[in-house]
Amino acid sequence: MKKIIHLSDLHVGHENCGDKFRAIIENIAFLKQPAKDYVIVITGDIVDNANHQEYIDEAVGIIELAREYGYTVLVVPGNHDYGNGAIGDKKFVDLFKKNYFKSNKVTYPKLDIIGRIAFIGLDSMAEELHWHDRFFSEGELGQAQLKRLKKMLKKSEVAKRRKVIYLHHHPFDFKLGMQLKDNKDLKDIIENRIDMLLFGHYHADPVSAGKIYHGAWGIRRCYNGGSSTHKNGDTGFQRVINLANKDPRKDYDGNFI
Ligand SMILES: [Fe+2]
């Protein structure tokens, strides 16, 4: 079974976060071989500010480098990928697809069947871009996306595999102006039904950033990656997870920078 490297909140464009992201990938390429045994999952805030195309170009270049090394890389958007982090704009939805997927036909949930694992990426900014709620850093999946997720989990090609859901917003803890607004609806759909939930978003507060939520909603592994590039010195992880090991204590922090 493929091993998973979870990265989050890289914030390329902020100070030397781009250099750190590049160093992480170079070090993964050196330490984690063969590359085809690994899938890198990035849970959003890939860049610090989507209004700067040069930040996106730098991030895409590093992701392409990882792919050239032979790694599969999966990404979902965070609030900073759809604007400056506090104010979003609908134009970034298609721009994100064009930049990171080379196609604007991608829809969420985004399903990638890789060997014995079904990877399901959610856009937790999907319903956060209306004029009335596009401020702050909250997330909302929206009923349309949640309905598609419910249907997707019933597909036989998904049901028979290990299931990993990854999204940007923190689904558990409430933080004013930052929480996933429809987290209860997500819970109803995925509770006791998936193997792992990966997310980020909370990294400025060291208590939330370092917290592991294993067992929440009946999900064995629940990880907040924090900021893997340690934006502003924030807590963050570069974890390596092997779902073949039933015991999550065998997962570890790769420390690639
Ligand atoms: Fe972030």
Kindly describe this structure.
There is one protein chain. The protein is an alpha/beta fold. The protein has one domain (3-253): 4-Layer Sandwich (Purple Acid Phosphatase, chain A, domain 2), CATH 3.60.21. 27% of the residues lie in helices and 17% in strands. The protein has helices spanning 17-31, 53-68, 91-101, 143-154, 156-159, 183-190, 206-209; strands spanning 3-7, 38-43, 72-76, 110-114, 117-121, 162-166, 196-199, 221-224, 239-241, 252-253. A 5-stranded mixed β-sheet has the order 3-2-1-9-10, covered by helices on one side. Strands 4-5-6-7-8 form a 5-stranded mixed β-sheet. The structure holds fe (ii) ion (FE2). Fe (ii) ion is lined by residues 9, 11, 45, 78, 80, 201, 203, 227.
